[in-house]
């Protein structure tokens, strides 16, 4: 169909005619899509981190002093009774016992070379039943159910301890999405306005085309293609931005000694295979929808 | 070919109707002058035929189309079968002469092959052979109007509507344009031309339809411009 070549040429001519506006449109779109991409990467990282942690997290049932003392294998009646109850609990996937001596050895490993070691005696540490759950979110029920049992000092849901980290990552994600939506609004308005200006400057030309019998295909599709090109170029720029951001910012941040084991790295495949195609589709779709609505509402010819 | 039945057109911003109960019938192959002073309704009548406006009352027919009731999406079809030229030429300013003519063919979905064959043929018809690569700004008024005529004829229209086609041209150039329109009419195309150029009308001795303040004042088979003004 030769009409296709025609509207394509017209669209490119339209973008060239108003270069500054076209560039502004593309950059705004790129920034909003970049923000969205960053948010999506944050979500993915949060999911990964949660998977990583929740597979290791457990509910720790710390035993009181008399029950902890001198029981290397949970053979005392109180400990064995607790273990039996926990193993029979439908919430519980597995139970392992860590004796006071084992806890002390682990403590020595973790804090090797630090002054805190001199303050701690094995007697300071409780023996623990580490309980993994069928559903990691149901730790509350276990805390409520076992805290007051005889022989129990306290019950700690480790999930609670890392929730702060997820809250932080979640707020990173929310901030990215928030900025993305504000920026997206700006991009939409800019695209809409550019199409209106472009249609207005070309109204005589479009009027002549209509008189000669041109259908809307000829007079309006070029504007839509301009919008799609904007969306696609915006998505490509956003992807380039995310790749650079990953290489020069995220990678450095996450390779820091403190955090490298706490948060899994963002992979290049996450950027290129997961986020980039999404941005491309979203960018093109939103730009097209904006263009279509603008033409319907504001451009009569 | 063209038929107006009791057509009235009232613009919301105007107290007097632009057209008031006008009925005109134009047969295929006719050459008709539509005359009258400014504001008499000539342009409104042409706009109704091209479906740039819809009548307030009455019916407008072009060939088999009931123009006033035509669905919006079918309007391009109608216009593709009508040629129109204007006082101000209305060429696409950033396209060459050849591309202006080609555009009319392009919108009707003609193949690249057909377009390459028809454009030179049309330019030859209006004596502009060899000027296909000129831009509209480089043309004289007479040349620009010839390009407009070539574009209007490219799709072999049922009817050629001309709204003051000589209004911006000097008398000599006007005569050339009239010779061209006459030749086109003799080749079989129906022509309806709005004008207030007395000399042209008197020289051609064709059918004259006169409008006055939106009403049909006269319809003579072989008329002159008239003695009243």
Automatic annotation (TrEMBL), chain A:
- Family matches, as Pfam families: FtsX (PF02687), FtsX_ECD (PF18075)
Q: How does it sit in the membrane?
A: Multi-pass membrane protein
Keyword Mitochondrion found:
no
Main localization of the protein described in the UniProt heading: membrane
Using the record's annotation, list all stretches that form the ABC3 transporter permease C-terminal domain. 180-287
Which cell locations does it reside in? Cell membrane
From the record, give the transmembrane residue ranges.
20-43, 175-201, 221-250, 271-295
Summary of subunit composition and partner proteins:
Forms a membrane-associated complex with FtsE.
Official protein name in the record: Cell division protein FtsX
TrEMBL record, chain B:
Name the principal localization, coarsely classed.
Answer: membrane
A Pfam cross-reference name = ABC_tran
Q: Which domain of life is it from?
A: Bacteria
| GO BP | cell division
SMART domains per record: AAA
This entry's Gene Ontology molecular function terms read:
ATP binding
Look up and give the membrane topology term.
Answer: Peripheral membrane protein
Q: Which residues form a coiled coil?
A: none
Is Nucleotide-binding included in the keywords of this UniProt record? Answer: yes
**Which keywords are on file for this protein?**
ATP-binding, Cell cycle, Cell division, Cell membrane, Membrane, Nucleotide-binding
State its location(s).
Cell membrane
Domain ABC transporter residue range list: 2-227
Q: What does this protein do?
A: Part of the ABC transporter FtsEX involved in cellular division.
Q: What protein family is recorded?
A: Belongs to the ABC transporter superfamily.
According to the record's subunit comment, the protein's assembly and interactions are:
Homodimer. Forms a membrane-associated complex with FtsX.
Q: Which NCBIfam families match?
A: FtsE
This protein is called: Cell division ATP-binding protein FtsE
Please report the organism this UniProt entry assigns to the protein: Actinomycetospora aurantiaca
């Amino acid at each position: 169909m030769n009409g296709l070549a025609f509207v394509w040429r017209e669209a490119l001519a339209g973008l060239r005619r108003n270069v500054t506006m076209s560039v502004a449109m593309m950059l705004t779109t790129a920034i909003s899509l970049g923000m969205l991409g960053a948010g999506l990467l944050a979500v993915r990282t949060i999911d990964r981190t949660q998977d990583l942690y929740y597979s290791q997290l457990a509910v720790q049932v710390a035993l009181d002093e008399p029950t902890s003392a001198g029981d290397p294998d949970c053979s005392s009646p109180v400990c064995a009774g607790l273990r039996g109850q926990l193993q029979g609990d439908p919430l519980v996937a597995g139970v392992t016992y860590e004796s006071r001596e084992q806890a002390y050895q682990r403590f020595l490993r973790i804090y090797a070379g630090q002054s805190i070691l001199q303050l701690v005696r094995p007697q300071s540490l409780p023996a623990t039943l580490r309980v993994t759950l069928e559903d990691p979110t149901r730790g509350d029920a276990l805390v409520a159910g076992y805290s007051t049992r005889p022989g129990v000092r306290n019950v700690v849901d480790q999930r609670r301890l890392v929730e702060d980290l997820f809250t932080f990552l979640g707020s990173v994600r929310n901030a990215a999405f928030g900025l993305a939506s504000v920026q997206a609004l700006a991009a939409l308005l800019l695209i809409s306005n550019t199409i209106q200006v472009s249609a207005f400057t070309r109204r005589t030309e479009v009027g002549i085309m209509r008189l000669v019998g041109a259908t809307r295909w000829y007079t309006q599709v070029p504007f839509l293609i301009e919008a799609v090109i904007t969306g696609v170029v915006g998505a490509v720029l956003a992807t380039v931005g995310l790749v650079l951001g990953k290489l020069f910012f995220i990678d450095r941040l996450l390779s820091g000694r403190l955090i490298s084991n706490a948060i899994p790295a963002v992979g290049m495949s996450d950027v290129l295979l997961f986020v980039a195609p999404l941005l491309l589709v979203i960018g093109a779709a939103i730009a097209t929808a904006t263009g279509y609505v603008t033409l319907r509402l504001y451009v009569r010819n | 070919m063209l038929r107006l039945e009791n057509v009235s057109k009232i613009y919301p911003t105007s107290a007097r109707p632009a057209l008031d109960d006008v009925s005109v019938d134009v047969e295929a192959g006719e050459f008709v002058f539509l005359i009258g002073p400014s504001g008499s309704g000539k342009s409104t009548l042409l706009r109704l035929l091209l479906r740039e406006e819809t009548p307030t009352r009455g019916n407008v027919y072009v060939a088999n189309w009931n123009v006033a009731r035509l669905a919006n999406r079918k309007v391009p079809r109608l216009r593709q079968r009508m040629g129109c030229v204007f006082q101000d030429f209305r060429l696409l300013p950033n396209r060459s002469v050849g591309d202006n003519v080609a555009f009319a063919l392009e919108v009707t979905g003609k193949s690249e092959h057909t377009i390459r064959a028809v454009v030179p043929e049309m330019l030859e018809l209006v004596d502009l052979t060899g000027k296909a690569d000129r831009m509209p700004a480089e043309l004289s008024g007479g040349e620009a109007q010839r390009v407009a005529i070539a574009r209007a004829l490219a799709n072999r229209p049922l009817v050629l509507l001309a709204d003051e086609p000589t209004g911006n041209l000097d008398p000599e150039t006007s005569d050339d344009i009239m010779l061209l329109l006459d030749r086109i009419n003799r080749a079989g195309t129906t022509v309806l031309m709005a004008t207030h150029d007395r000399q042209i009308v008197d020289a051609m001795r064709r059918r004259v339809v006169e409008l006055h303040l939106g009403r049909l004042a006269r319809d003579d088979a072989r008329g002159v411009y008239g003695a009243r003004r």
